[in-house]
Write a structure and sequence with these properties.
Keywords: DNA-binding, Metal-binding, Nucleus, Repeat, Transcription, Transcription regulation, Zinc, Zinc-finger. Belongs to the krueppel C2H2-type zinc-finger protein family. Pfam families: zf-C2H2, zf-H2C2_2. By secondary structure, the chain is an alpha+beta fold. It contains 16 helices and 28 strands. Among the domains are: about 50-110, Double Stranded RNA Binding Domain, CATH 3.30.160; about 285-360, Double Stranded RNA Binding Domain (2-Layer Sandwich), CATH 3.30.160; about 365-420, no CATH class. The strands form 14 sheets. It has a two-stranded antiparallel ribbon with strand order 1-2. The protein has a two-stranded antiparallel sheet with strand order 3-4.
Length: about 425
């Protein structure tokens, strides 16, 4: 016999399912208790308040202080602490504490999304997620923070937000000392210990610890860039990347160094900058004794040892270890000189070339010889000047008569022509 819901017109083959549906309908409406002025989002919360007011027995879990209207709900809650997962998926090895959670999980295998939004084309595996989604259309945010003016569409989001005020991080990793404000963040973190990557890309087989990372990765195959800048034509695969990009238009630099006051648009740039103050170089080459402030610089350095040149010119057969070097090289083919001097109009293929050139106009000579009082606009002439004054290790290696200069002990023999102003070579 088919039974029908009076409110939504849904049909059910089992009377129990109809009762459950009616209960959900009742919970949709905020419940007001008649003996006091408290209001509740769910009927179950009203039942607990009813028991408290009448003195009827409630069931409290001593580890967290939560109260339940009946013992079966208490037992279900206990599983979040004991880790008991009696309900197993027959398609994968996952287990669940609640039968309803198993039912929801099975939809990840079947792709079933029975709960459809009647205002857009989105569908959901759970009715609760549909309800939350519907608030996007209505703009409803019934859960308000009593410490600031923020409001939320979901009660659990309010709970997470409150922890930003209290600093509470109740979910602790049992393998390290990290703690989290949300259980989902703890689960994701635990995969760094287990190396578990349950979310696989169907196109290339790459695995991910976090489902959102898989979604982002899929866009590398589809080329989808849904987040568009409204000030230029750039688009991004991630909303966070769009936010960071928008700072190029606004000039916002929210990250400030507390040692020198310099500000940065990106947090990782601040971290790199702070290492200049501390001298920290955490990225060490395992083939030589060099160390770097950035992991990217270490990777580029390692190509010196491996000889890897992944960046190939499509105009000739040359290849380069660094992408920037390929870009500079390609300008030789194209003749492009994008860096222009604003005082004389001279153009350059590299920004560094423009900076050196600008010193002609400013007279700046930042490179000073530590052996004499000369200063230079470029580093290489300064280096040559400094080497002219390098003391020899043994004056016996030189013959003053042969080279014909009374001050020869102060010069390496191959540098003597530079000192003497001659081009001919000198034999020691």
């Amino acid at each position: 016999m088919i039974r029908q819901c009076n409110k939504h017109g849904k049909a059910f083959t089992c009377n129990n399912y109809l009762h459950r549906n009616n209960k959900i309908n009742n919970e949709e409406e905020s419940s007001q208790y008649t003996q006091c002025d408290k209001a509740f989002e769910h009927q179950s919360y009203l039942q607990i308040q009813d028991r408290i007011n009448t003195g009827e027995k409630t069931f409290e879990y001593i580890q967290c202080g939560k109260v339940f209207a009946n013992q079966s709900c208490l037992q279900l809650h206990e599983r979040t602490y004991t880790g008991v997962k009696p309900y197993k998926c027959n398609q994968c090895d996952k287990g669940f504490g609640h039968h309803s959670s198993l039912q929801q999980h099975k939809r990840s295998h079947t792709g079933e999304k029975p709960y459809k939004c009647n205002q857009c084309d989105k569908a959901f595996t759970q009715q609760s997620k549909l309800r939350v989604h519907e608030k996007l259309h209505t703009g409803e945010k019934p859960f308000k923070c009593n410490q600031c003016d923020k409001a939320f569409a979901r009660h659990d989001n309010l709970q997470y937000h409150k922890r930003t005020h209290t600093g509470e991080k109740p979910y602790k990793c049992n393998q390290c000392d990290k703690a989290f404000s949300q259980k989902s963040n703890l689960r994701v973190h635990e995969r760094t210990h287990s190396a578990e990557k349950p979310y696989k890309c169907t196109q290339c087989g790459k695995g991910f610890a976090i489902y959102n990372y898989l979604k982002l990765h899929k866009r590398t195959h589809t080329g989808e860039k849904p987040y568009k800048c409204n000030q230029c034509d750039k688009a991004f695969t991630q909303q966070s990347n769009l936010r960071v990009h928008e700072r190029t238009h606004t000039g916002e630099k929210p990250y400030e160094c507390n040692q020198c006051g310099k500000t940065f648009a990106y947090y990782h740039n601040l971290q790199t900058h702070e290492r200049r103050h501390t001298g920290e170089k955490p990225y060490k080459c395992n083939q030589c004794d060099k160390a770097f402030t950035q992991q990217g610089n270490l990777r580029m350095h390692e190509r010196i040892h491996t000889g890897e040149k992944p960046y190939k010119c499509n105009h000739c057969e040359k290849a380069f270890a660094y992408h920037s070097n390929l870009q500079y090289h390609e300008r030789r083919h194209s003749g492009e000189k994008p860096y222009e001097c604003n005082q004389c109009g001279k153009t350059f293929t590299q920004q560094s070339g423009l900076r050196i050139h600008e010193r002609i106009h400013t007279g700046e000579k930042p490179y000073k010889c530590n052996q004499c009082d000369k200063a230079f606009a470029r580093k290489s002439p300064m280096a040559i000047c400094s080497t002219l004054f390098v003391p020899v290790l043994s004056a016996q290696r030189f013959d003053k008569q042969a080279v014909g200069c009374s001050c020869v002990p102060h010069f390496m023999c191959q540098q003597l022509p530079l000192h003497m102003g001659r081009d001919e070579s000198v034999s020691c």
